[in-house]
From TrEMBL:
CDD domains: WHTH_GntR (cd07377). InterPro entries: Bact_HTH_transcr_reg (IPR050679), Chorismate_lyase_/UTRA_dom_sf (IPR028978), Tscrpt_reg_HTH_GntR (IPR000524), UTRA (IPR011663), WH-like_DNA-bd_sf (IPR036388), WH_DNA-bd_sf (IPR036390). This is GntR family transcriptional regulator. PROSITE patterns: HTH_GNTR. The lineage of its organism: Bacteria, Bacillati, Actinomycetota, Actinomycetes, Micromonosporales. The keyword Transcription applies.
Length: 240
């Protein structure tokens, strides 16, 4: 394919033209459609699509099915094997972390919540928040905590909940997580300011405290164009 005179040089020129346009654009600004790019540059749609796909792979733009291609927000990395508070990650990027509280209540747990948090009785604190880096929403977070942790609702929930838990005598130590991709719901779209149906990175976490007791059960729904996970791994030797 690289030897195709229609594909390689023109594909590269389209990509460079779009990179220059992206540098002058704001997050979520639309890019020309692939048919428009093909007509403008006199190439096939396959060539135009290849140029856009490279920009998607580089994290510079994102596709919204049925809507078009848009400029992405520069994403911040996180090691998938480290338990790091999102607020710390945001500060390391030189931005201000804060949260908008959507729900904060003490209520009976669902069966799944009671099982995962090992609760035989009692309520849970349900705290739903939108996490921001400066003025950009990064994640829509739903978290549950055992009602026995203390008066969590008295804490400033626009700041780090983990810091509030430490002050109450519960230190997050380690945990497990499950990561998957999912399309944004209407609620996600409203809270995160992304198109409904766009890609989200979903992380479900169970965090234990210093006494090996379940402390937090959460689901964080990250805007796919604003966040990424970096994974370090080893390679098992081949079995001869």
């Amino acid at each position: 394919m690289s030897g195709d005179p229609d594909f390689s040089p023109r594909y590269f020129r389209i990509e460079q033209t779009l990179r220059a346009q992206i540098a002058k654009s704001r997050p979520h600004d639309p890019l020309p459609s692939e048919p428009e790019l093909a007509r403008e540059h006199g190439v096939s749609r396959m060539t135009a699509r290849a140029a856009v796909t490279q920009l998607v792979n580089d994290g510079l733009v994102y596709r919204a099915p049925g809507r078009g291609t848009f400029v992405a927000v520069p994403s911040g990395p996180r090691r998938a094997d480290h338990l790091i508070r999102l607020s710390e990650e945001i500060r390391k990027q030189g931005k201000r972390p804060w949260a908008k509280v959507v729900v904060a209540e003490l209520r009976p747990p669902t069966t799944i919540e009671a099982t995962r948090l090992r609760l035989r009785k009692g309520d849970v604190f349900a705290i739903h928040r939108v996490r921001f880096a400066d003025d950009e929403p990064i994640a829509f977070e739903r978290a549950m905590y055992p009602g026995t942790v203390g008066d969590l609702l008295a804490a400033d929930l626009s700041r780090s909940v983990h810091e509030a838990l430490v002050k109450l005598g519960h230190t997050p130590v380690h945990g497990t997580s499950t990561i998957r991709a999912e399309a944004a719901t209407e609620e996600d779209a409203r809270e995160l300011g992304v198109p409904a149906g766009s890609a989200l990175l979903i992380e479900e976490r169970l965090i234990l405290d210093q006494n090996e007791r379940p402390l937090e059960l959460s689901e964080s729904r990250y805007a796919g164009d604003r966040y990424r996970l970096d994974v370090a791994f080893g390679v098992e030797p081949l079995v001869q």
